[in-house]
Each structure stands twice: as C-alpha cells, then as structure tokens.
Amino acid sequence: MALTWTHKDRGEIRVHENLEELSIDLVDYIAEISEASIKEHGVFCIVLSGGSLINLMGKLVEPPYNKIVDWAKWYVFWADERVVGKNHDDSNYKLAKDTLLSKVNVFPRHICSINDTVSAEDAATEYEFAIRQMVKTRTVIASENSDCPRFDLILLGMGSDGHVASLFPNHPALEVKDDWVTFLTDSPKPPPERITFTLPVINSAASVVVVATGESKANAVHLAIDDLTSLETLLPCLLGWSSQAVGI
Ligand SMILES: O=C1O[C@H](COP(=O)(O)O)[C@@H](O)[C@H](O)[C@H]1O
C-alpha cells in the first residue's frame, strides 16, 4: 500500500513499498489519464523519458492494460533524447520502442521522435517545429496559461543529481524560456549531445509525474520534498512545479 500525501508545493507524493507496487500504480495512473484525455478531447498526448522509467511501464503491454488502452488514440513524444542513431543503445526512442511501442498498436505516424541524422541543434529545432505544427492542427492542445503545448501527461525519471529530462543542475539549459526544445552538447551524463524540453513546456502539461527509485536517488528526493529553500535553484526536479502530481 503506497504512502500518499499532498505536498503544499509539489502536488501528490506517493511512496511505494517496492518496484512491483510502484509499477502497478504507475500504469494504472497512465491508463486512467489516457482514458480521461481521450474522453475529453479525442486523443492522448503522452511524453516519455528514458532510463529506468520505461521498464517500470512494462505492464502496459500485458493484460489487462494492453486490451483496455485505446492505443490508436495515443500520440507519443519524448521529454528528452540523446542525439544518437535510433538503433543505438543510448537512444531513448529505441528503449521505448523495444520495451513498449513495438508491442502495442500505436500508429507509427503518431510517434514524434527526433531526426537522428542531424546535429543536436537542428534536431531540437526540427522537433520543436513538428510539435508547433501539431499544436496548430490541434492534435496537441495549446496551454491557456503560457505560450506552450499542454501535453496530457509528461513522465519524467530523475537522476541521482536531481536532473529531469536533460535539464541538469546549474546548466544554462535551465534558463531557456523562449524555446520549447533546447539542446546540449556538454551533458554531464553521457552521451554529451542531447535535446530536451525546457521548463516552461514541462510546467505547462496537464499532469507531470516524476518517478524515482533506488538508494542513489534518495538524497535528491529528500531534498526535493523536505528542503525546498536551500536547493531550489540547484535541483531541476524542484523548479517551478506547482499543481501537478508527483509520484515517487
Ligand atoms: O539520461 C537520462 O537519465 C534520466 C534518469 O534515468 P534513470 O535511468 O536514472 O532513471 C532519464 O529520465 C532521462 O530521460 C535520460 O535521458
């Protein structure tokens, strides 16, 4: 049974006994938001990350979820991507494809991944352009509160340094406010070249879930929950969030 409470700044916090329980809660939550979004506006725009998060979503491709989720209405995006070939083991796209997307009926044309044949800068520009087109055609809803898309659900992992997407502590990418997608060529965690959603985009989503597991992340989680003031400017996982759900 998860320990659940509402934090005054961070939204809902859920602490689970073990990975199995977390994983069931996570996929239940995804299935619930998927159904609600499709009811509300016909599609479900979900944003994935890479890393350990994807394996925790594995139950989605098993019964009952694989049968009850309306995969044809899913549009899939990434909060960040490593600028490597789509067949490279470091690719967040490959991880999601191998673990999830190749096992369910999401239309390939509904999968919005980066161009892996260009520079990080061009990949960021092209990815943002593609999303802007989808906002124009209203596949992705525009936020009413910012000049950003309002994704139905953004799923974020968190590194032990507190990074989310490819927004790392003290990195200039954290300051980018006018672009939806930015790029890095000096990521502190390899590989160095990446693209990432900026904070305004993450903060404009209808729901954001941060999933953190394992001892190496305990300190960053503790700081995120208990020590808001001293590290507010340092930990990307703290920045700007107000009303979204945070699942840990
Ligand atoms: O490099 C990345 O790391 C984070 C965290 O990964 P994890 O394996 O420690 O869970 C991930 O969320 C991000 O998408 C990825 O590019």
Automatic annotation (TrEMBL):
One Gene Ontology cellular component annotation held by this UniProt entry: cytosol
InterPro entries referenced in this protein's UniProt entry, alphabetically: 6-phosphogluconolactonase_DevB (IPR005900), 6PGL (IPR039104), Glc/Gal-6P_isomerase (IPR006148), NagB/RpiA_transferase-like (IPR037171)
UniProt-recorded Gene Ontology molecular function terms: 6-phosphogluconolactonase activity
One GO term (biological process): pentose-phosphate shunt
Stored SUPFAM superfamilies: NagB/RpiA/CoA transferase-like
Enzyme Commission number(s) of this protein: 3.1.1.31
Involved pathway(s): Carbohydrate degradation; pentose phosphate pathway; D-ribulose 5-phosphate from D-glucose 6-phosphate (oxidative stage): step 2/3
Domain Glucosamine/galactosamine-6-phosphate isomerase intervals: 19-226
Domain of life from the UniProt record: Eukaryota
Catalysis performed (reactions): 6-phospho-D-glucono-1,5-lactone + H2O = 6-phospho-D-gluconate + H(+)
Keyword annotations: Hydrolase
Transmembrane spans: none
Sequence similarity: Belongs to the glucosamine/galactosamine-6-phosphate isomerase family. 6-phosphogluconolactonase subfamily.
PANTHER family tied to this protein: 6-PHOSPHOGLUCONOLACTONASE, 6-PHOSPHOGLUCONOLACTONASE 1-RELATED
Protein known as: Probable 6-phosphogluconolactonase
Species whose genome carries this gene: Brassica oleracea var. oleracea
